[in-house]
Amino acid sequence: MKKIIPLGLVILLLLTSLACNFGAKPKDAPTPVETDACCTNEPPTAEPEYIGGAPAAPQVSGLEPGWHPFTNANIVRDVIEHDGTLYAATLGGLVTWRLDSGASMRYTPLDGMGHVSANAIVYCEIPEPRILVGTLSGISAFDPQTGSWTNDLSLPETSRIPTSKIERLYCDQANNRLVIGSYGLSVLDLASGELQQFTSKEGLRWDSISDIAVNGKDIWVAHGYNGIAQISNGTIKTFSAAEGLPDEYAYSLAVAKDGTLWIGASTGLISYKSGKWVHYDADSPANLRDVHNLEIAPDGKIWAATLPLGIGRLCQFEPEEAVCAVDFSEADSQGIHALALTESGAPVYGTGKGVYSFENGAAKAFKTDDQLASNYVDSFASAPNGTLWVGTDAGIHVIDPAKPGETWQTFRQGEITEMGGNWGKGLTVAPDGTVWMASTNGSASRYQNEAWTAFNDIYSFDTVAVDGQGRAWFGDDSKGVIVLNADGSQALTFSTANGLPGDNVQAIVVDLSGRVWIGTDQGLAKVENEALEVVFGPDSAELPNKYIRALAVDSSGALLIGTFTGVARYDGNQVEVRVDFLKDGFSEARLTTLAVAADGQIWVGTDKGLLAEDGGGWKLLTTADGLLTNYISALHVDQFDAVWVGGGGSNFDGGGMLQIVP
User: Fold this and answer.
1) CB-CB contact of 11 with 1 (8 Å)
2) What angle do CA 533, 537, 540 make, to 5 degrees?
3) pLDDT digits 0-9 by tens, 340-364
4) What domain count does the chain have?
């Protein structure tokens, strides 16, 4: 990296420039979000109008310009206690809770965190006291004294750790090293900065790491689904059924003071000492299953937490009688993802609905007041009445975009059986207010007159658009297009059998003239008066790529074509390539979605960040600039010209939702 001027100054200048263009604020200092904060802005004074797929002139919302994050920080993946404060690694950021007062703070990439989705957390002196958070994009270091994020964890530039998902962290302070689970195991010497890495190439049974424990200088790792391994003086020894391991589905590890290794497995608990295995399975009185977390208190008490399909259990296990001396079923009927012990030895645990401290047989909840059903946000659509519809993988929200801090309306299939599914992969709203949804792992659905209807023949489709006749056009990644009339009856189908260039359809849009444009992996088609025409086929050279991932219509009626590696504008006669990733410096990025504002400003979502036009060029905004995630799964410009950014990439992590107010 060239160091012509100080890096901090470069970043500050860049963010100041972006702030002027996009309404963002430079991050001069951490600005943690208080979890109970609400927006108190005035409502819009008029309803928006949309003609076809193009946005109308923007209105004024009264919202404060800047970047406003929305996440669900109750989806906990790891937790620790330090100095009277709980630190929860969640899919919606880092959340801290004071045990005495219950006061909380939330941190996201807008404050300096590397990625909003966190899976692991540990206290470590490196040598300064730090809370190390393992995110979807490396390790972020938090100073508990100042409440700020630092960059003082030194990792070799050649390692993949700074850009990889961190699965597990263990601070081996006795040996002055940090043990990192991420695509194998890495051992960082905190004094020298030397990094050792162990993967399946070096002898591990698998590269996925579900837990880490240390006994003396020996490191033990659990692979989750493929046994365990011991690393001693750089030598790997693996344990599977062949070596006597009673259950290869090993999720969690802990070492007792006497050197006994305890293993949490799918069929219960396993102990290992001096070459002897003891299996406490379904025949034992405790009858534990799916033990994903283990902790051993200073007094020797063994605490086990389960993560089954049903209700999780917290068990204080007594090996002598193989019973749970304390047996607690999780208060909110959740599986337990995280477990830690306070300095006094009391358990704290995390679920998909918050953090809990456990004492005297009762659990005390610590929960953020979040409305977002899931941190995987996959679609947006504006309705004629001005509301914003948001599709996640765990439910559908209806928001007033001028007052997003107020109560949202939420639809979930578990509460509304008429819905076809929870996962709103695609959303569109007809001029009469009828909402159509394409659902991943679910059936297409319609919301009309405050009632849902499912269409089971359209299962797990990817996109949907509505034409001037109120017909819903559903696209699938392998089945082409199915069109439903406004009453739900089938009207048309399009596939390669009747002229569609490809059956993988990721994008459909209706232009100002009522023509329907269909983007496939083999080019672009147009349907006018129910007649299909291939406009750009697989051999056309006008577009950056034949694989079309997104479509939009600008205010002039021109079509914006988002391909796998770039964006083109097509006015019906000429093609203008607006950005070509391979030629314009973004060769590693792949387009995921796009949106256009009323003034023609194009926003491009990729798997490496958000591309935005800037003075005739393009800027790639990332988590370093405050984006919650670099994987952009949804984009939308509302009637106030605010940009809504949805993140995800997988329903096992998250990206939350970001509102960029100009």
Assistant:
1) no
2) 130
3) 999 999 999 999 999 999 999 999 9
4) 2
Question: Is it the case that residue 650 has pLDDT exceeding 90?
Answer: no
CB of 394 closer than 8 Å to CB of 412: yes
Residue 9: phi, psi to the nearest 5? -70, -40
Determine how many CB atoms are found less than 10 A away from the CB of residue 313: 23
- 57 pLDDT tier (thresholds 50, 70, 90): low
With CA atoms as reference, report the closest residue to 549 among 475, 600, 495. 475
Of 198, 226, 257, the residue that ends a domain is 198
pLDDT range class, residue 338, cuts 50, 70, 90: very high
- Each residue's pLDDT tens digit, 164-213: 999 999 999 999 999 999 999 999 999 999 999 999 999 999 999 999 99
Cis peptide preceding 127, ω within 30 of 0: yes
Q: Which residues contact 544 (CB under 8 A, 6 or more apart)?
A: 563, 564, 565, 566, 567, 568, 577, 579, 580, 581, 582
Domain that holds residue 602: 541-662
* 216: CB partners within 8 A, 6+ apart: none
Q: What is the 8-class DSSP label of residue 163?
A: G
Are the C-beta atoms of residues 66 and 83 closer than 8 Å to each other? no
Instruction: State the number of CA atoms in the 13 A half-sphere of 406 facing the CB.
Output: 12
| DSSP H/E element including 102 | none
**141 in Cβ contact with 153 (< 8 Å):** yes
Q: Which of 154, 183, 198 is the last residue of a domain?
A: 198
Q: What is the pLDDT of residues 264-292, one digit of tens each?
A: 999 999 999 999 999 999 999 999 999 99
